[in-house]
Design a protein that fits this description.
- Chain A has one domain.
- In chain A, 74% of the residues lie in helices and 2% in strands.
- In chain A, helix 8 runs antiparallel to helix 11 and helix 11 packs across helix 12.
- Chain B folds into 3 domains: 42 residues, no CATH class; 196 residues, 3-Layer(aba) Sandwich (Rossmann fold); 125 residues, Coagulation Factor XIII, Chain A, domain 1 (Distorted Sandwich).
- Chain B contains 10 helices and 19 strands.
- In chain B, helix 4 packs across helix 6 and helix 5 crosses helix 6.
- The relative contact order of chain B is 0.11.
- The chains are: A mainly alpha, B alpha/beta.
């Protein structure tokens, strides 16, 4: 490159940046930087998607086979053996609708615990808004989510079981699960830098949570005072909202369960953002 | 000339074991037990509490202390200093990877840094995919990368490998690609940390030329290297750091000579006690240099104070010269001449000296390592005693100064001509 080409780019597309770095303070241009690095957000997601499907022998087929197998298993256990009710909706679809957000959240949680640690070389050698790491992994998991969603849509049409009016609430439902995912991802990615054992805690929570959340059963089977303890799990409201959006399934306390999980999600999101920004300052030194 | 980077009273403290009172890399169990411990202690010995806590946070380490200087636009600044002098910490603060503990940095212009070549390369992805990924990580836009793509590929000399996964690349290829991407960034300030240490000589020369070009086109370059020669040839300004403090800054030459002086003080001599029941070594000293380094054609003399306690017929001492890449390039043993061998094994405290001419070597830095061993038996000391000496070329101040890049044995200059 010679002098002239540099100067010309300088004139056309370049605006001088001035910044001040000071002690223990996030750079004031954080959100400006975020805008500047928005492409990196997609590049990181693109990298992980590419790598994920390059390495797997069956590639994208896994994304379809896994939820179908899980669906079959849960239908067998909860529907056929335990004889739980799913109302007028086929039990298999009922399970699939619950598994959709569950798989998204659990894989986001799992990936989040590894996101900063697996990218140690980036975090300690290059500056970029670190928030890109825990957020881009959500995009990666949304690919699997979209595949599952398409699968559910096909099955819904095939089995003729859907509620057209309730489907209008789907964007809101998706927004709820996304806010929850971002909150979970921010918290877990940052806290694992401090406490590595969160990797094992999350593994346990995912194994345990699939039964503590109404994935294989309807949340209405929990009654009495325990119901309110049960509702404190944000996944209850999220799964309820998914089942409502697809099949119009409601129960007397659905408004309460969804509101609780919306409040908890927003709380998790805002505190997660603050915690991540605070921890971000010392990631490179502490990781 | 405008100031590109203004650094005021910059300090960085690392707390060993804990950071800002937040302990990192700890397990929850450890944290809980420590907290529980403190609570128990508080209950049992309410008056001792303050004392205990202090010892916990006391391990602090200042990587940088009150560093202040200005870097002007278009400067090529060489940052020199020994390992742990704070060079990397300084670069990390400038590249916003870590925040300073106190002080302030003002940066004017877009800054990009290459602290390690190939950071962010993903081994499973191809060369082409990695160019885009790495460009994005370094802050380039997709369009920018597309427009520079051919230039980058051309510079890295890797058209043939564009669709090969990076895991099949040699380390040299990774270096070339990594540097090529960073060098084509449209940034105003470029930070390079020891990145050229691994490339081959030809590519290094190409990089130096590129850095020269960048400087000429008004770009500011910050460059860290252990290699005094490359700093001298690349940079017009220098900063010499020692233990986190700026010892010298300004023009590059005084910085380099201050650094070299310090190197000499650090490694021209060794003192201590080393050995076993057969032999003990008390000191090893390099002498013979007129200044802080050797020019070629000076005589270096190595003096060793030692004592033979119990002679062993297979005991020997050897002097090895190693280059900075840790390769043995020359060696001499006390047993090579039977007379020397006998002399060496005489009981008692003695001083031995070993002389050689530095014109044996090309310009560069070398290590002298003493080896003490019993032949076919045990090694008494292998690399414990290691002294360092730089050899400067006599053509140091000519334009050929950096044509000789291979530190190693000098073949001499016995050229001759006959007219046909």
């Amino acid at each position: 490159m010679n002098k002239s080409t540099y100067k010309s780019t300088n004139k056309s597309s370049y605006t001088p940046i001035e910044q001040t770095l000071e002690a223990e303070k996030n750079s004031g241009d954080y959100f400006k930087d975020l805008l500047r690095y928005r492409e990196l957000f997609f590049f990181m997601a693109w990298r992980d998607i590419l790598v994920r499907y390059k390495q797997a022998f069956f590639g994208i087929a896994w994304a379809i086979v896994r939820p179908l197998l899980n669906m079959a298993l849960f239908t067998l256990i909860f529907g056929k053996i335990a004889h739980l009710s799913s109302g007028s909706t086929p039990y298999s679809l009922f399970v699939l609708a619950g598994m959709l957000p569950w798989q998204l959240v659990s894989s986001v949680a799992f990936d989040a615990t590894h996101s900063l640690i697996n990218n140690v070389n980036l975090v300690t050698k290059i500056y970029f808004p670190r928030i890109i790491l825990p957020t881009s992994l959500i995009l990666v998991n949304l690919v699997d989510f979209a595949i599952n969603l398409a699968l559910l849509a096909i099955l819904m049409v095939y089995m003729g079981s859907y509620s057209f009016l309730a489907l209008l609430s789907l964007p809101l439902v998706l927004a709820l699960v996304l806010i929850f995912c971002v909150g979970v991802s921010l918290w877990l990615s940052a806290i694992t830098v401090q406490y590595r054992d969160f990797r094992f805690i999350v593994q346990f929570l995912v194994q345990f949570g699939v039964f503590a959340s109404p994935v294989g059963y309807g949340s209405y089977i929990i009654t009495g005072v325990w119901k309110w303890v049960f509702f404190l799990n944000p996944m209850v409201g999220i799964i309820d909202s998914f089942r409502y959006a697809f099949f119009g399934i409601i129960h007397p306390d659905i408004l309460a369960s969804i509101s609780i999980s919306a409040i908890l999600s927003i709380l998790l999101f805002t505190t997660g953002l603050r915690y991540f920004r605070k921890m971000e300052l010392i990631f490179a030194d502490g990781i | 000339m405008t100031v590109a980077i203004e650094i005021q009273n910059l300090s960085k403290k690392y707390q060993l074991g804990s950071l800002d009172g937040i302990s990192l890399n700890k397990t929850l169990v450890e944290t809980f037990t420590r907290k529980a411990h403190l609570v128990v202690e508080k209950l049992c010995f309410p008056f001792l509490r303050g004392k205990k806590e202090k010892t916990l946070v006391n391990e602090e380490f200042w990587a940088l202390q009150g560093v202040s200087f200005d870097i002007h636009e278009g400067d090529r600044v060489g940052i020199i200093g020994r390992n742990g002098a704070g060079k990397s910490t300084l670069l990390k603060i400038l590249s916003q990877i870590t925040a300073p503990t106190s002080g302030r940095v003002k940066i004017k212009g877009r800054l990009s840094s290459l602290l390690e070549v190939g950071t962010g390369f993903h081994l499973e992805l191809t060369g082409r995919e990695n160019i885009f990924l790495n460009g994005a990580i370094l802050g380039m836009k997709r369009k920018e990368i597309q427009s520079k793509f051919d230039e980058i590929v051309d510079f890295a000399e890797m058209e043939k490998f564009l669709d090969t996964p990076v895991k099949r690349f040699s380390s040299g290829m990774c270096t070339r690609l990594g540097f090529a991407i960073a060098a084509h960034l449209d940034s105003d300030i470029l930070i390079l940390d020891e990145v050229l240490a691994v490339g081959d000589t030809q590519f290094q020369a190409k990089c130096f030329k590129k850095i020269d070009h960048l400087g000429a086109s008004g770009r500011t370059v910050l460059f860290v290297s252990h290699d005094v020669n490359s700093v001298l040839s690349l940079c017009n300004k220098g900063i010499y750091l020692e233990n986190g403090i700026v010892k010298e800054s300004g023009a590059i030459e005084p910085c380099v000579s201050a650094y070299v002086k310090h190197l000499k003080a650090q490694s021209f001599s060794w003192e201590g006690v080393l050995g076993d029941e057969h032999i003990r070594i008390y000191s090893a000293v390099i002498s013979g240099a007129a200044s802080q380094f050797f020019y070629q054609n000076e005589v270096l003399s190595l003096s060793i104070d030692y004592e033979i306690l119990k002679p062993h017929s297979d005991l020997f001492l050897s002097v090895g010269i190693w280059n900075m890449r840790n390769q043995l390039i020359a060696r001499s043993h006390t047993f090579e001449d039977p007379k020397h061998h006998e002399e060496f094994l005489q009981v008692g405290k003695r001083r031995l000296s070993f002389k050689f001419n530095t014109s044996l070597f090309n310009a560069g830095e070398y290590l002298i390592k003493l080896q003490l061993a019993i032949h076919n038996g045990k090694k008494i000391s292998d690399e414990a005693i290691s002294l360092r000496f730089p050899v400067y070329s006599q053509i140091e101040n000519t334009r050929f100064a950096h044509a000789i890049k291979t530190d190693g044995i000098n073949l001499g200059s016995n050229w001759s001509w006959v007219n046909e």
